[in-house]
Amino acid sequence: MDAASTVAWRQVPTLAGRHATLEPLQAAHADGLRAVVEGSGLDRLWYTNVPAPGQVAAYVDGVLEAQAQGRVLAFAVRDAAGAVVGTTRFYGLEPEVPRLGIGYTWYAPAVQRTGVNTECKRMLLAHAFEALGCASVFFETSWFNHASRAAIARLGAKQDGVLRNCKRHADGSLRDTVVFSIIDTEWPAVRRHLEFRLEANA
């Protein structure tokens, strides 16, 4: 891998669209993310990893530490009005394949099932396939997270399988993980599908 590619796999880009902007996650985003969680009930979903309001700052610090170690590339999500409405990240970085995952995504309830998530996924996938040259991008979610499974399938990702008892949920219980992926040859069709959905939200 050349020097430019190495930098690209360690640098968090800013990605801007009509509905949303993805910017490098910083400690200063903690207040906005805390506001997203407060009163939303997101942290009560036992099969997800959304922090409680009082744990958001520590959560952000942990993500930034993982990023400093080269394990993730993390983003804060802003809506068209500029408000912080969520977070997402690249993880499982394998530049030697090249391959990565998109996940640890959570949004304010008001922007779920809107153009925000569709546009964020289109921008993230475009960066992965077109800027980083990925051969595949994967998504993982708990067997019990039916909303997430449906959302991933709506992107155009295909289910690869289920890894039984491979991780633990935040509450310590063993997790069956459903794995989906999109490969490079599928990306043009998936991109057109996402663009079509965005046009419908215009």
Key phrases:
single chain; about 200 residues; alpha+beta; 8-stranded mixed beta sheet; 6 helices; about 30% strand
Care to describe what's here?
α4 links the parallel β5 (99-107) and β6 (136-142). The chain has an eight-stranded mixed beta sheet with strand order 1-2-3-4-5-6-8-7, sandwiched between helices. α4 runs antiparallel to α6 (187-200). The longest helix has 17 residues, at 115-131. The protein is built from six helices and eight strands; from the N terminus they run αββααβββαβαββα. The termini are far apart. The protein has helices spanning 3-8, 30-37, 56-68, 115-131, 146-155, 187-200, and strands spanning 15-16, 20-24, 72-79, 84-94, 99-107, 136-142, 158-168, 174-183. By secondary structure, it is an alpha+beta fold. The mean pLDDT is 95. The radius of gyration is 16 Å and the shape is globular.
CA-based shape: globular
Derived structural class: alpha+beta
Q: Helix proportion of residues, in percent?
A: 25-40%
Query: What is the end-to-end distance?
Result: 39 Å
Task: Output the number of helix runs.
Answer: 6
Q: Give average pLDDT, whole number.
A: 95
Total count of strands? 8
Major sheet, described briefly? Answer: 8 strands, mixed
Low-confidence stretches: none
Radius of gyration: 16 Å
Strand fraction: 25-35%
Spatial strand sequence of the major β-sheet: 1-2-3-4-5-6-8-7
The secondary-structure element order is: HEEHHEEEHEHEEH
